[in-house]
Request: fold
Amino acid sequence: MALAPALALPPAVSAQVPALPATVATAAHLTEVHQRLDTRAADHARDVALTLDACSGAVDQGLLDTLVRLRIPATLFVTQRWLRRHPDTVAWLQARAAQFEIENHGARHVPAVVGRSLYGMSGPASVEGVTQEVRGGRDAIVQALGSTPRWYRGAGARYDSVSLKAIEGQGLRVAGFSVNVDDGASLPAPRVAARLHRVQPGDILLAHLNHPSAGTGAGLAQALPELQRQGLRFVRLSDAAGVITLP
Ligand SMILES: [Zn+2]
Reply:
């Protein structure tokens, strides 16, 4: 099924496409949504988006401080569970709303795969469970931060078709990515940095905000200044010219 209106890309843009070639339907009929930013306009030609998932667990404050120091905006995907656990961080983020936009990563980090599991996480028994997960995440953000999310990224970032329909039926767009920066916060800093050194204009980066002991924060701190020196311009998803779902 179509996730969102896929833009017809001119050949020049198609030729730039990328490390992750396309949105992938896996063997188990799950979809991993791959997207890039629209870089066709001159003033968006160097855009890159950093997205950070806060699934549950802790806060990588060192990573957030790095982004503040480098003035790099980001789009954070947070769960209800994470928001409730970290009221001080919620207040910190509220004071920096122009730099960090907050989007929906669900209520309890339940993957959008009905009747099966994903990376060891059990999906709900029915699609109503997906709807509850999406609604719970949205309501938590509205309540804690006063903003209404427009994007949804499910736990594990893969989806079955009935769940995709349920998410879109709530007026949310599924947020994909083009560069998996930290493999679920499992990579050491040098490997995180190595993946970042391959970033191109238009990439949407996926990393994690909830594992301060992982290599994610140090890898980003090492590589982000170099990307800035290359003239890449970090934007929040809402500040991009558009987000294109790859076919
Ligand atoms: Zn997650």
Q: What stands out?
A: Residues 53, 55, 105, 109, 155 surround zinc ion (CB under 6 Å). Residues 1-18 have pLDDT under 50 and may be disordered. The helical segments are 11-14, 61-70, 80-85, 87-94, 127-145, 161-169, 189-196, 216-229.
